[in-house]
Design goal:
The protein is α/β, with parallel strands linked by helices. The protein has helices at residues 48-55, 78-81, 99-107, 116-122, 138-150, 168-183, 195-201, 249-260, 273-286, and strands spanning 4-16, 21-33, 37-41, 63-68, 84-87, 156-160, 187-191, 204-209, 212-217, 230-235, 241-246, 264-269. It contains 9 helices and 12 strands. The strands form 3 sheets. The protein has a 6-stranded mixed β-sheet with strand order 5-6-7-3-8-9, with helices on both faces. The chain has a 3-stranded antiparallel β-sheet with strand order 2-1-4, covered by helices on one side. It binds adenosine-5'-triphosphate. The site of adenosine-5'-triphosphate has 10 residues, from helix 1.
């Protein structure tokens, strides 16, 4: 088996008419390994959804190559589809069904589904198993969506902005669920606008802008983050906040301490993933 779960080469999707067309995906190269959580980041309109829909087999590409679990998603059939799990942004309409019934209906579509009780346990809905899906809160509803996405025991799970609208506690619980699925061997492609979510979950991140990948790296190394200068911040005697950008934060803090003694509100910080990401996107837009 190839070590890659998914690969694209020069992927292109053109929208519009013959007279006026543009490439929403414009020569995109992507490689996702088996067993990883890969985060796809990019501003609105960058081409994330279009790319993901091509990979899911829901949209035909205009050019380039794509291979997902060893098959061309445009040609692949039912047995391939049963190895893919999809959790869309908008939820399925299950109206009057309970959690257990919803899962049972979806399970019937797959050749080797997970046990329904196992999934209910995994998504933390044991005490809601007989509640109607329509009566669940947004966060619990989203857990059910994940349950429906994984009931078929997918090798590869597409998660599109999974925690939009969650409260902080629900997000933490949801992240634990995603990690445990991954630890059980599920490869995950995650799109999200939350940088902290991507930083916490993703082994590697791809930044997409104008239909192309700008960089793929670990969250720690993206955009030269580990080499970026540290920022020493403190409040001076006049109450003003002072910020010093330096490659030698230890020496700067020692010098400041020697000169001023105890400093008020002292922090030393590296740029966050969000700082780096916004820089990358900003640069690309001004080119
Ligand atoms: N069916 C379509 N027909 C024409 N243009 C489209 C179609 N779908 C998307 N587009 C355009 O293609 C570009 C990329 O859109 P896409 O939805 O893939 O971006 P995205 O990165 O997922 O954005 P978001 O973060 O807002 O979901 C946008 O300019 C969008 O308007």
């Amino acid at each position: 088996m190839s070590e890659l779960a998914l690969q694209t080469r020069g992927l292109v999707k053109t929208y519009g008419t013959r007279k006026q067309s543009y490439n929403a995906v414009d020569g995109l190269d992507l490689e996702i390994r088996h067993g990883e959580i890969f985060g796809l980041l990019g501003p609105n309109g960058a081409g994330k959804s279009t790319t993901v829909e091509i990979l899911e087999g829901y949209r035909d590409r205009t050019g380039g190559q794509a291979s997902v679990l060893g098959e061309d998603p445009q040609e692949a059939g039912l047995s391939w589809r049963s190895k893919i799990g999809i959790v869309l942004q908008s939820t399925n309409d299950l109206s009057d069904l309970t959690v257990r019934e919803s899962l049972a209906i979806f399970a019937a579509y797959y050749p080797n589904p997970r046990q329904i009780d196992e999934v209910i346990e995994l998504i933390g809905l044991a005490d809601k198993a007989d509640s109607r899906a329509s009566a669940l809160s947004g966060g619990l509803r989203r857990r059910l969506d994940v349950g429906l996405g994984i009931i078929g025991r997918p090798e590869l799970l597409f998660l599109d902005e999974p925690t939009t609208g969650f409260d902080p506690d629900a997000r933490r619980q949801f992240w634990a669920l995603i990690k445990s699925l991954n630890e059980q061997g599920t490869t995950i492609l995650l799109t999200s606008h939350y940088l902290d979510e991507v930083e916490y979950l993703a082994h590697r991140v791809g930044v997409i802008s104008k239909g192309q990948i700008l960089e793929v790296n670990t969250p720690e190394l993206l955009g030269g983050r580990e080499d970026a200068s540290a920022i020493v911040t403190y409040r001076d005697g006049a109450g003003q906040t002072v910020k010093i950008s330096t490659d030698e934060p230890t020496r700067v803090v020692a010098d400041l301490a020697a000169e001023h003694g105890e400093l008020s509100e002292l922090t030393v910080a590296r740029p966050t993933l969000e700082d780096i990401y916004l820089q990358m996107i900003g640069k690309n837009n001004s080119e």
